[in-house]
Amino acid sequence: MNDKTYRSDAFEAVHDIASEMAQRNLISAETMREFDQSCLTTVVPLDAAEIRGIRRQAHVSQRVFAMHLNITVSLVSQWERGVKKPSGPALKLLTLVKVRGLDAVR
Q1: Contacts by 50-54, CB closer than 8 A, 24 or more apart
Q2: Which of 64, 61, 72, 68 is nearest to 97 (CA)?
Q3: Residues of the chain with pLDDT under 70
Q4: I need a surface site. Which of 2, 3, 50, 73 has the fewest CB within 10 A?
């Protein structure tokens, strides 16, 4: 399908249909942009306790969590202590793990 990450498989299927409609000028580009935003996984800042909770909910150590996210154990530790805050792609990955579980990034 495509490389976007959707809230669910249903959102992905509906988005594919809407994309086809937009390509055929059956819905406007503005409507498609709004639809994109409603289907994609929303990313919000996470604090240290939330990040620790995400990892613990996955029942993995910091080392295993780091391996799944392709980051260092030190960075996981810094996030969980609040020394650093994830942003960009790292925050998106953490949000996906929070919403869909660790299998979302395997």
Answers
A1: 50/98, 51/76, 51/79, 51/80, 51/86, 51/94, 52/80, 54/94, 54/97, 54/98
A2: 68
A3: 1-5
A4: 3
Cα(95)–Cα(79) distance, rounded to whole angstroms? 14
Instruction: Write down the pLDDT at residue 34.
Output: 84
pLDDT at 106: 80
pLDDT at 84: 98
- The model's pTM is 0.69
